[in-house]
Structure formats: C-alpha cells, structure tokens
Amino acid sequence: xxxxxxxxxxxxxxxxxxxxxxxxxxxxxxxxxxxxxxxxxxxxxxxxxxxxxxxxxxxxxxxxxxxxxxxxxxxxxxxxxxxxxxxxxxxxxxxxxxxxxxxxxxxxxxxxxxxxxxxxxxxxxxxxxxxxxxxxxxxxxxxxxxxxxxxxxxxxxxxxxxxxxxxxxxxxxxxxxxxxxxxxxxxxxxxxxxxxxxxxxxxxxxxxxxxxxxxxxxxxxxxxxxxxxxxxxxxxxxxxxxxxxxxxxxxxxxxxxxxxxxxx
Length: 264
Description:
A hairpin with a 4-residue loop joins strand 4 and strand 5 (210-219). By secondary structure, this protein is α+β, with helices and mostly antiparallel strands. The strands form two sheets. Strands 3-2-5-4 form a four-stranded antiparallel β-sheet. It has helices at 3-7, 10-26, 39-53, 59-81, 89-104, 113-122, 143-154, 177-184, 188-192, 230-254, and strands at 128-129, 132-140, 171-176, 200-205, 210-219, 222-223. The protein is elongated. It has three domains: 33-86; 88-116 and 228-252, no CATH class; 131-220, Chitinase A, domain 3 (Roll), CATH 3.10.50.40. It contains ten helices and six strands.
C-alpha cells in the first residue's frame, strides 16, 4: 500500500494517538494524584473544629472532617488541572491579596519614642480634627414653608411651634462636614459655612428638603495631642511600615520582569 494510503487508514491513526497518550501519561509522575493526609493536617482540622464549636472532635467527627477536606482537595486540584483559576478576577484578587499579606508579614520593630513622635508630626493632618458644628434645626418639605416659619419666628413666635416630622435628629453635636453630608446629603455642610452661630437662619437645603438652622457652636480645627493618641499613632506607624515593605517587595519583583506595552 502506498504511503499516502497508510495515512488514510483510521486504525493507523488510532494506534498513533493511543501511543502518544500512553507516552504522555507515562511521563506524568504518579505523585500527581497522590494526596497525603498528614498528622499535622488532622491536628489542624481538629483545632479548627474546636475553635468553631468549642468542643473536642470525636474520632468519628475528625474522620468526617478529613473526608470533607479530601473531597474539597480533589475538586481543587481538578479545577487547577482544568485551568479554571485562569482569567477569573475573583481568584486573581484573592491571590494578589494573599501575596500582599505575605509581603507585609515581616515583623516591624517597635519604634523609638522620638521616631514615633517624628511620624506623628509628619502626618499631623491625620491627627487634626476638622471644623465641627453643634446645631439644632427645623425641617420643612417646601422652601416656602421654611421661609414663612422663619418670618414668624423673627416676629417673635416660638420656634418649637414650627417644623415638620422627620427621621433626622433634632440636634447634632460636634459633627464634621463629612458626617453632615453623610446624614443630610452632599453639599449640606458647605452651606453651613455661610451661617453664623446664634439665631435661626436659612432655609438650608438638604437631600430631604429645607431646614432652619440654629448653630450653637462652630468648633475650630484642633490638633489631637500626641500623648492622647499614642497607641493610634503606633498602629499607624506599623501599618505604614508594612505598606512600605509591600511596595519594596513589588519593586524587587518588577526587576525580574520585562514589561512590554503594546501600542494602541
């Protein structure tokens, strides 16, 4: 039979493909499918059970935990073998997060007092309280109703006779612009900057309607003393050093890669 005819024989192709699969399978280590249940693993599962339930796992319960772990491990390995971890944004973020934790895990030595105080001064804005407001307000759905109430109050009427029901608190104390915008809607705090303390003024618009406002006190910015927040400064210092360690880790890794940016 001519060579061309041999190539057209299905049996020949079956034998060739079978031989190729046999060779490929023989080169895969047997350990690929080997799962070892170590004593350390059993101890870890038992400890996890005790942590979650407060009880010591019986032998039957521990065997059940091991069985569940085995099923999970098999599914995990098969998912990796099938490449299900690729192009998955959730898995990508999780792996990046875990490696970030490893990069930040280096023990940060306790700083000297002077070093901690220097960090405090360098980041003084983080420990400075912003302008805050303590005020009362009356709520109205319509601007006209608020304006009418203000006119009556200025003529001598009692303020408590006006205002409509609302889920908002009648008064707020030591609230920053961030707090007020979160409670009343974006832009509310900015309007208070033009309102002087003392006396009913407005209307001031919020995300809910309109308000007459009586500002009791405008509290200026205030630096929190170092001694009062030393523990917080220490935590911030350690976190900053962890982030620096992570950045340094990434920078070192970048040196091992060639970055190619394709033109648009």
